[in-house]
Structures are given as C-alpha cells and as structure tokens.
Design goal:
Blueprint (H helix, E strand, L loop, with lengths): L1 H14 L10 E5 L2 H16 L5 E3 L1 H7 L10 E5 L7 H14 L10 E7 L2 E7 L2 E4 L3 E3 L5 H5 L9 E12 L8 E3 L3 E4 L4 E5 L4 E4 L2 H6 L4 H6 L4 E4 L2 H7 L18 H14 L8 E11 L6 E4 L6 E5 L5 H17 L19
Parallel strand pairs: 1-9, 7-16, 12-13
Antiparallel strand pairs: 1-3, 2-3, 4-5, 5-6, 8-11, 8-12, 8-14, 9-10, 10-11, 15-16
Length: 352
C-alpha cells in the first residue's frame, strides 16, 4: 500500500487526465476508550512499517476540521500521507489508458467460463464468442467464486453490500481529508459530500452463504455489530439460479440501503451541526468481494498454468488496485514479484 502511493502520486501525469487525486490525509476519529486503546496499540505497528500515522487530540482534530463539533471526540488516528481520488473518473481513465496501449475493452460482455486443456488455460467463453488465450487474469470481484468453482478452485467470498449517498453542496470545508468518524465521508472538490454506510455492511443471503458461511464465523464474531444479514429478493433469485447466469447480471447494481443512509446522515449532522438537514442528491450500492480473513487472493494459480487471480480485496480494491495490477503484471511477464505473496495464496482455502 505504501508503494501504491508512489503510483497514485504520478498517475494523473501518466494518464494525462485529472482524477481529483489529493494526498492530504485520512483520519479515523474515535469516541470511546476501547477505540482509543486499540489506536494506541496500533502505533508501534505503524512505526514498524514506516507509516506516518499519528495520534491526535480532540483539539487537533477540530483544527484540521474547522466545522467539526469535537464535544464527544476522544482523539483520532491521522495518516497525513494518505490520499483519495474520484472513482467515477479513475476507472474510465485507466480503461482509456489501457486502450491506448493496445487493450481491447468489450463493454456489456459477460465472461461465461474458463477453458483448460492439459492443465493450462486455452481460452475464455464469452457471450460474444470464444477468445483463445494463454493467460487469463480473474479480477472479477464478486463474481470470482462462481467463475473459479467449475475448475475445482474455492474462493470463499461473501457478497457484502455497501451503500453510498452524495449530498448537495454543503457549507463546510473538509476537502483535505477522508474521514471515518460516526460514519465515513469525504468532500468532493465541488463541495458535495459522499457519505457511506460504513458501519453496517449487508450480506444478502444466497446459496454461497451456505457453502462458505462457516468460514466467516470468526469474522462475524469480531464484527457482529457491523454485519447485517438480509433475507429478501436476492435470496430468492439465488435459489432460482438467477445469479448462475452471468449474462443476466453483467453489472451488479443492488438497491442502496436507504435506512442506513438516513442514519449515516444523522450521524454526520451530529459531527457537523452547521450543515443542518442533510439531503442526498443520489445514492448507489455495490457488492464487495469479502474474504473470511479480509485478505485478497493475489497469485498465479498452481492448478492451472496461465491462470492468475487478483480478487477478494475486501473493500480495499480501489486504493491498492494500481499496485495489485503491477504485481500481477510482474508475475505474468517476469514470473516473479518483489513481494512475498504467500499470505495472499488461495492455498489457505484449498489445502492439499
């Protein structure tokens, strides 16, 4: 992640486009003694790995966030070298950059299956026909487990639904930071604020929940207050085999959690009372490919020559995406990488 910051620093010049990249810090505000103790315990780890993280007092938090109400604040973890960019700009810019270097991008085209021959990849079936190839990178997020299952490779992820709302222009100034306080938020250059339902991730119960759910028991115990389970339309669609048809859901576009968004807006207003009533101009949701240990799978799969996986980023994909891409490229072109990828091997879920 630290090396990825170096990529982000130069990405706008490399792509020749503005991504609203700002390296002005990230803050985790805490309001209880337990979080303070965990933050203090994290500081030796931060120093060990060369992070610039520091502990702030409530008055220092208020100084960095001039419209913030610090009355309940007990301090914060602050990493001044962290940054953020605008996903709506970054994703298309990466695609255009790849196309300039010869990539062919097939929009609205589902990948249906991966073909193997004598233990090596030989092609991928798509709804526009078969593509012969010797190398395949599976970077399909929430769809990864379903694409790998026919090959006998387990990728025990759960789809965790996250929701975000965008407000109108607010009369506050906090554009320098990404903040996780009573909710998570960042201010865009135009003055609007993205507010995320960060504390309450929803898992829509599906068939995969039964297949992989037991692996998530330790994670659920640690985060039982933050993980909600939903039994609804997604469950019925899963039981009917709806999600087995990749062409039906080329793009996963679940409904936002409006109840959670309204609660997040109320929490945001507690921290910034000057904004008054918070109104959302738009909202959206998506599925996170969440792993039992919250670590991704980044590797050349030993079961199939030419098959690589970069998935299970568990909510961190946008931030560390560039370094994951470079790492996979090194594995493909050089057959090696400068990082020890053993902790990210699928062998931890596929013993033997």
């Amino acid at each position: 992640m630290l090396d990825c910051l170096e990529i982000w620093r130069g990405i706008e010049a490399e792509l020749g486009e503005s991504l609203d990249w700002r390296q002005q810090g990230q803050m985790r505000v805490f309001y209880d003694e337990g979080m303070r103790e965990r933050s203090e315990a994290f500081m030796p780890i931060a120093r060990e790995f060369g992070l610039t993280t520091e502990l702030l007092t409530p008055s220092q938090v208020a100084e960095l966030l001039p419209h913030y109400d610090p009355r309940d604040c007990q301090g914060a973890l602050f990493t001044p070298t962290d940054g953020n960019a605008e996903p709506e700009k970054a994703a298309p810019a990466f695609a255009r950059g790849a196309a300039r270097h010869g990539a062919v991008i097939m929009d609205n085209t589902a990948a249906l299956s991966i073909d193997l021959w004598n233990g090596a990849v030989c092609g991928v079936e798509t709804e526009q026909g078969r593509l012969a190839c010797e190398t395949i990178v599976v970077a399909s997020g929430a769809w990864t487990s379903r694409l790998l299952a026919p090959l006998g490779i387990r990728h025990p992820s759960l789809w965790v639904r996250g929701s975000v709302g965008r407000t109108g222009v607010l009369p506050i100034e906090m554009r320098k930071l990404v903040v996780w306080g009573k909710c998570a938020y960042r201010q865009r250059p135009d003055g609007r604020v993205n507010i995320a339902v960060a504390e309450d991730g929803f898992h829509d119960l599906m068939l995969g929940s039964i297949l992989h759910g037991f692996k998530f028991i330790p994670l659920a115990r640690r985060n039982w207050r933050n993980l909600r389970f939903s039994l609804g339309k997604a469950t019925m669609r899963s039981l009917m085999g709806d999600f087995a048809d990749f062409t039906t859901h080329r793009t996963l576009d679940p409904k936002p959690d409006w109840k959670g968004l309204r609660r997040a807006a109320e929490r945001f207003r507690e921290e910034y009372p000057v904004v008054g009533a918070v109104q959302y101009e738009r909202a959206w949701a998506g599925y996170i490919d969440y792993m039992p240990d919250e670590l991704p799978v980044i590797e050349a799969l030993p079961k199939a020559d030419g098959l690589f996986v970069a998935a299970g980023l568990s909510g961190h994909g946008f931030g560390i995406g560039p370094i994951v891409g470079r790492t996979i490229a090194d594995l493909i072109v050089k057959g090696r990488t400068e990082y020890n990828l053993a902790p990210f091997s699928s062998a931890r879920f596929n013993p033997g």
